Amino acid sequence: MNRLAEQIKKAREQSKLSEKALAKKCGISENYLRDIESGRKVIKEDIAEKILKKLGKSMDFMSMPEETSQKDSENQPIKKKETSKEELQNYDLKPTGAWQKALGNLIKIYPVQRMDSQKAVGEKSLPLMGNKVEGYHPDKLFFIEVTDNSLQDLRIKKGDVVTVLDTQEIENGALYLINVEKGRMIRRLRKEGSGKIALFQGLAGESAVIKKKEQLNILGKCIKVEFFL
Length: 229
Fold this sequence. Notes:
Blueprint: H1 3-14, H2 19-26, H3 30-38, H4 45-54, H5 59-75, H6 85-90, H7 97-104, E1 107-114, E2 120-127, E3 141-145, E4 161-165, E5 175-180, E6 183-191, E7 196-200, E8 209-212, E9 217-226
Parallel strand pairs: 1-3
Antiparallel strand pairs: 1-2, 3-4, 4-9, 5-6, 5-9, 6-7, 7-8
Helix pairs in contact: 2-3
């Protein structure tokens, strides 16, 4: 039964009229009125107004309860559902294996190590483009943080992050991360005759330090420097 049918029936009962008496007043059949009140027939607006008028009511009367209810609901404050401690405990923020696998095909995460101690001091996340990072095979790159200002003349300062390509091929004049008896350092290299290598720190007027190739452990070629303001 729809709301309009309910209200017509309620108004008729309040007026203490039988279905037969109200139907006669309205000029409709008793069966038709019974079908309206039961919801079996959809009542037209003009017929509803006619019936209500005979009952001393109007269509405004029919809409008042709904409007009042709507206003009351609008005035009620909206209660926010509080998350229980149990729900919070069951909410796992850790990525699933599937997510990690999916992200692993899009992003490569590298540790950033101090140049002097090789201690990890951070991470870098770089996108994989065509199975490459920065145009290189992702397993051929690593990152170091410069730990002093000895390379200022090369515009490399303490705290800068250097991208290193894992290669032992020497390109004259390029910067390389090397490991010698004094530890790891960055130097500009130049091939000399008889299997010797010249090392330059980048200082104005400096003389090259000559080393035999077997005295050097070339860790990789420095291809990029990032600095932070």
